[in-house]
Amino acid sequence: MHQNGGPMPRQVDHEARRRHIAAAVWRLAAAGGLEEATIRRVATEAGVPARQLQYYFGTREELLLGALDLLNADGEAEAQQRIAALGDAPSPREVLRSVLHELLPLDENRRQRNLVHAAYFVRFLADHTLRERIRDTPPELENLIALLLPEEHRADADFLLAGAAGLQGQMLLGHLTAERAVELIDHQLDRIFPVVS
């Protein structure tokens, strides 16, 4: 009870509210692209007043970028869990394979994330302002991949990343099975990390 005898004021979980709103952006983006993610539609999808979106994110641009940041953070957390599941001392090849698999729609979570990323990609191509906001993002994934590669194959980091991104689109379109995409990644990894007999 509150000291004046009334009920205790509810504690608002701001992070949960931001995620709830971001999830509405993701659903709209995955279903129809970012053009669907207007302030009004996101508010309706999230079941909250439009002013709450502005309170938690600010402008529509900040809403879109904030939702993307949360999506990427969730994806990174899932990736870290899968890498941890490899055991105490996974080989660089195992870690790299796991990292590349994160880029593919191999389960429903990754498929939805890929669809949302595709919507953002199209928007970034068309919107110079948004594109400028992410242009100077550090190439963390490329750097991680390069670190996992043997010295003589460091130049392959960008190619592996681009290859996985290409496989992603082919899988989303249904032109490539998950099994074939995994085989293609394994083929490249076998070239880089040859099995010593």
What does the model show?
It contains ten helices and no strands. The protein has 197 residues and is mostly helical.
Radius of gyration: 20 Å
Gross morphology: elongated
Structural class: mainly alpha
How much helicity do the residues have? over 70%
Tell me the major beta sheet. Answer: none
Total of domains: 2
Give the DSSP E fraction (strand runs of 2 or more residues): under 5%
- The topology string of helices and strands comes to HHHHHHHHHH
| Gap from first CA to last CA | 71 Å
What's the total count of β strands?
0
Number of helices: 10
Chain-averaged pLDDT: 89
Low-confidence stretches: none
Outline the secondary-structure elements:
Layout: H1 14-32, H2 39-46, H3 50-57, H4 60-84, H5 92-102, H6 108-126, H7 128-135, H8 140-148, H9 157-172, H10 178-192
Helix pairs in contact: 1-2, 1-4, 1-6, 3-4, 4-5, 4-6, 5-10, 6-7, 8-9, 9-10
